[in-house]
Specification:
There is one protein chain. By secondary structure, the chain is α/β, with parallel strands linked by helices. The chain has a single domain, classed as TIM Barrel. Helices cover about 45% and strands about 10% of the residues. The strands form two sheets. The chain has a six-stranded parallel sheet with strand order 2-3-4-5-6-7. Strands 1-8 form a two-stranded parallel ribbon. Helix 4 links the parallel strand 3 and strand 4. Helix 2 crosses helix 9, helix 3 runs parallel beside helix 4 and helix 4 packs parallel to helix 5. The longest helix is centred in the first third of the chain and has 19 residues. It binds 5'-deoxyadenosine. The site of 5'-deoxyadenosine has 12 residues, from loops.
Length: about 325
């Protein structure tokens, strides 16, 4: 759908409940037309919280005094084995920018996963790398890559990141990933410090133009020990509104109901699905490392086993009329 910048500004700022209801109902309808009442699941494996970057918002930034861990390839394959038995057909390897995970280590791992589970998609979410590195990962069989752009406004980017990080390089990575044949995920935090309606309009313009196959958005949540620890959290309501707008702008997009939403609101993920989201990403990481992947405070991480939290999520989705199929859930 084509929405003018004035219409978008109105949708972002209106406090008319009828307008917001109409927006989410339309987003639901559009999602149902493209994907049906189906929510795809991805098994999230948080492979390392070591990170060379120092993003001002992130709880595992280089300067954070958090306990560091990394999973071995064997542990990661173990997570995949458990996940496959549970019906996951996409594995998302997510982590900080950790030099231990060289191209060689990752390529071997990707090949092992693809050999053992040829019916599965492998998604990587490991930050910025060089084009050659992305090319090797793609050749090894990786299907998708998530790299949030964080903000499409260059000045705003500079306020969220240290000077050594570059907006241009982030955007170049996204274009390289696209060129190399990855399904690409972009995205941003809602309510990050210094965000304005204008920077959000730039995010929406970027999404309409680049048309990433996936868009991950969730509320900003302060993380202890970071420069933004005393900033306010983003709004659940605005996040839901943005999910609905993104569904309308880009009907085929894969749109996760993120953990950050579930963290700020007990039924945040259900409400996201009712606003047009169609992906959930339950955690398949080993129980003892989940709490360490603390990118923000109070991150939702049940003490329960992967099987138990998946069963809970399935029930929650069924309760609002959605099924969670055993399916790779590719971009349609
Ligand atoms: N609150 C919400 N989301 C965060 N991220 C990082 N730190 C936070 C935070 N404090 C998001 C960023 C990043 C992804 C890994 O998690 O958008 O890309």
């Amino acid at each position: 759908m084509n929405l003018s910048s004035n219409e978008l500004r109105h949708l972002l700022t209106t406090s008319d409940p009828a307008a917001i209801d109409a927006l989410t109902a339309e987003a639901r309808h559009v999602r149902d037309e493209v994907y049906g009442r189906r929510v795809f699941m991805r098994g999230l494996i948080e492979i390392t919280n070591h990170c060379r970057n120092n993003c001002l918002y992130c709880g595992i930034r280089r300067d954070a005094h958090c306990r560091r861990y990394r999973l071995t390839p064997e542990q990661i394959l173990d997570c995949c084995r458990i996940g496959h038995a549970l019906g996951f057909r996409t594995f998302v390897l997510q982590g900080g920018e950790d030099a231990w995970f060289t191209d060689e280590v990752l390529c071997t791992l990707i090949r092992d996963i693809k050999r053992q589970y040829p019916d599965c998609a492998v998604t990587l979410s490991l930050g910025e790398r060089g084009r050659d590195s992305f090319a090797r990962l793609r050749d090894a069989g990786a299907d998708r890559y998530l790299l949030r752009h964080e903000t499409a406004d260059r000045t705003h980017y500079g306020l969220l990141h240290p000077a050594e990080m570059s907006f241009d390089h982030r955007m170049q990575c996204l274009r390289d990933l696209r060129d190399l044949g990855f399904q690409v995920g972009a995205g941003f935090m809602v309510g990050s410090p210094h965000q304005t309606v204008d920077t959000l309009l730039e995010d929406l313009a970027f999404i309409s133009d680049f048309r990433p196959e996936m868009v991950g958005i969730g509320p900003f949540i302060p993380a202890d020990g970071t420069p933004f620890e005393h900033e306010r959290a983003g709004s659940v309501e605005l996040t839901l509104r943005l999910l609905a707008i993104i569904r309308l702008l880009h009907p085929h997009v894969l749109l996760p109901a993120t953990t950050a939403l579930g963290t700020l609101h007990p039924t945040g993920r259900e409400r996201a699905v009712e606003a047009g989201a169609n992906v959930v990403m339950p955690n398949l990481s080993p129980q003892d490392t989940r709490a360490l992947y603390a990118i923000y405070n109070n991150k939702l991480s049940t003490g329960s086993e992967a099987a138990e939290s998946l069963a809970d999520l399935r029930l929650r989705m069924q309760a609002i009329g959605y099924e969670v199929p055993v399916d790779r859930g590719d971009f349609a």
